[in-house]
Amino acid sequence: MFADIPENTKAMFYHRLLSKLMLYTLPVLISLPVSLTANAKPVQADTSAYQTQRLKVNALLAERSARFGQYDQSLNQRTGIFGMQTRQDVKNSNEILRQIVLNDNNIFKELKILMNYKDQVVQQVQRDASNSNSRIQNYMTTIKKLQEQNNQLKKDVALHRDKKKLALYVIIFLSVSLVAATLIFMRKVRTIRS
Predict the structure, then answer these.
(1) Is 137 part of a structural domain of the chain?
(2) Which residues contact 156 (CB under 8 A, 6 or more apart)?
(3) Could you tell me the CATH number of the domain that includes residue 147?
(4) Is 46 part of any domain?
(5) pTM surpassing 0.70?
């Protein structure tokens, strides 16, 4: 493909190509933080679900606290003769206690869901960070390779210029030598004829 093209043109072509690649790679690197925030939208949805779940747990905890206050009051309630507790008082206390236990079970279920949300968010952040790190490493590797290629092309261009200068000097020397040899030959021919 490049067999017909002089080395100087090849070197300039590669240099331009490398410059354009660097020019197009830079906006990608600059847009990296933008793409990271674009990936944060699913995490935001998970975060709102997490907040909703937290509100559920807090509501259940407030309900538990209120029921425990009711239980404490029911223990002090004595409607029997001589200030004693009746079976109905004990049943009410036990029912409130049963509701507290059921509420505690609901709290544990909701806490488990809350922890799952938290784990999902942490895993998503870790995946995003790992993804970003690998992309950054790939970009850095590509840039390093491009810089090395650019340096090599600069060296090739400088070497080609040196070879071109040397070839020019050789041509000038040979031309001067040929002119000098022609002049000497012409003088000898004149001296032989005269």
Answers:
(1) yes
(2) 7, 11
(3) 1.10.287
(4) yes
(5) no
Distance CA 17, CA 141 (A): 18
- CA atoms within 13 A of residue 99's CA, in its CB half-sphere: 17
What's the structural domain count of the chain?
1
In this predicted model, what pLDDT tens digit does every residue of 110-161 receive, in sequence order? 989 888 888 888 899 999 999 999 999 999 999 999 999 999 999 999 999 9
Cα angle value 122/126/129 (rounded, 5°): 140
110-117 long-range contacts, Cβ below 8 Å, gap at least 24? Answer: 110/53, 110/56, 110/57, 110/60, 111/57, 113/53, 114/50, 114/53, 114/54, 114/57, 117/46, 117/49, 117/50, 117/53
Domain that holds residue 85: 7-193
Q: What is the pLDDT of residues 50-108, one digit of tens each?
A: 888 889 889 999 998 888 888 888 888 777 777 777 888 888 889 988 998 999 999 99
